[in-house]
Design a protein that fits this description.
single chain; 175 residues; mainly alpha; two-stranded antiparallel ribbon; 2% strand
Length: 175
């Protein structure tokens, strides 16, 4: 047997450089969900208390922008893993993100910065709002993840098909 196949000393491989901070954060499910929850709740609280919340277009735009941010954070996290792991990562992200939003909502309600409609929220509306946040985040995350998985599967099959055609053409040229 050759020494090439069975080396006597093992080599510990280490990355040549540490990943960037954004990459390290995107690998962590809790960090991505917590950042998303805090930023989302603070953003909505600020915009809805300091903006022209009388316009339904303003409110809809605020929620749409927040939804896009949350789904981008989810996508950035899921992109680090195979689809095989998405089935538990996506719902876990939704629960952690919603939980963070709910805790932030409680804190903002306690200091009087949380709104419920056009009024300042109080603790009597906090729990129904918390339930709504939890279930909508879970539903939106699951539906988005299923759509994302479908799109990724289609794109991967197209890429594989193109690579097979390219390798078939290359092998036809080379004798």
């Amino acid at each position: 047997m050759s020494a090439d196949f069975f080396p006597r000393a093992t080599i510990q491989w280490k990355a040549l450089e540490d990943p960037a901070l954004t990459r390290r954060i995107s690998l962590s499910l809790p960090e991505m969900a917590l950042i998303s929850g805090v930023v989302l709740r603070l953003y909505r609280a600020y915009v809805l208390t300091h903006g022209s919340s009388s316009s339904w277009l303003w409110v809809a735009g605020t929620f749409l922008l927040g939804l896009i941010f949350m789904l981008l954070m989810l996508t950035a996290h899921l992109a680090n893993f195979t689809m095989r792991h998405w089935w538990w990562r996506a719902p876990a992200f939704a629960v952690l993100q919603a939980g963070t939003e709910i805790v932030m909502s409680l804190a903002l309600t306690a200091v009087g910065w949380e709104t419920y409609g056009s009024e300042v929220a109080d603790l009597s509306v906090w729990w129904p709002s918390a339930e709504r946040v939890l279930w909508t985040r879970i539903a939106i995350t699951i539906v988005f993840t299923l759509i994302l998985a479908f799109v990724v599967r289609i794109i991967r099959s197209l890429v594989v098909r193109r690579e097979r055609r390219a390798s078939g053409a290359a092998s036809a040229i080379i004798p």
